[in-house]
Amino acid sequence: MVKHLDISSIKKITVLGEGKTAKSVLNKLNELALFEITTDTANTDLVIISPGLDPKKYTLGITAPVISEMELAYLLFQYFKNPPKIITITGTNGKTTTTDVISQLLNIPSAGNIGVPLIEFVSNNPTKVPKMISLEASSYQLEMSPTFKPEVYILMNITEDHLERHGTMEEYARIKLKVLHLLTNKDYFIYNSKDTFTMDFLSKNKIAANLIDIHKRDEIAYLLKESPLLGEHNQENLSAAINASLIMDKNSITIEKIRNIKAYPHRLEKVRTLNGVEFINDSKATNPDSTIAALNSIPGEKTILLLGGEKKSVSYEQMFSLIRKNNVRCIAFGGARDFFYEALSDSPLMLGKTYNLEEAIKLAYSKVNSGDVVLLSPACASFDMYKNFEERGHEYKQIVSTIPNN
Question: Options 1.20.1180.10, 3.40.50.2300, 3.90.190.20, 3.55.10.10; which CATH number does 269-401 get?
Fold first, then answer.
């Protein structure tokens, strides 16, 4: 892992990957015309690896430094001497909503894992670089970003996820927490005091940054109660967003702004109310902790939960316990349908299993009563049938919109 890199010494760059991030990097490198782009990994000065590629598999034998697109963007901002102030949000759950809310409150662009690669904001023309950016960072991006340092670093939580990539929870947590060693006394760390890994780190390490706990809310309580977002987890997200926004612009927050916050698509998104039945799209819930947060936001006995997709290599027992405790009815669909059906088959709460999402929605609607909620919160990745959770969520909304009103 490279620790320090002088971008002015780089002549040749290789880009690994074929997706959106790789294309953005190649487009920006061509636009800047500072480097030669080569596919020869044996004869290059720097390798940029896309977040979807596991470095342990794709960088074997490469001797040149290997970094992320996010790290490259950060280095180029410094090189052109026009860096924006960056608020970086990470965590197993909540980071996209928090990133988007900060973007709304400060009226600044969002970037990173939320959809637009950070590299797209790099320019040698200072008038084209935003003054501030709200940046969502996944562990895949942070993993290969050794010197990346934001002005504000928000860590929402560290719970079980992505172990197929990182191997252990300890390694996953290390990647999320290593940024803290780079923060100075001019920077801020906004953290969750209920998160075990974060609190263990803070008890054992002295960091220079100013600390803000998202659960100390007395001064912003009057704003939080105005939130249109559902659930306690969104109170955490909003607390982090408000604190970050106040750091960057102490006059940025008004009650009107809080009331006008729009929920991010596919995150407890209200889709339609039909004959007294509410349909909610929480397709972004790609792990059991996200689904637990959703279930804690909606009365359980009124909920029919659609579970399914590509199962994660994590424990689902806590989610199953909550389903049983709250009498949540369930329908299993997609690649994990047999797993969920068998796990809950001893309970009348399991209404059935279907091959795909459309069949699951139809089955759910045949079982509902007025006042019920049909909740898509799959607790799984979407790759069994979809390119991403957005595509899954769009299909849910499209199918729900075509149910006849009778």
Answer: 3.90.190.20
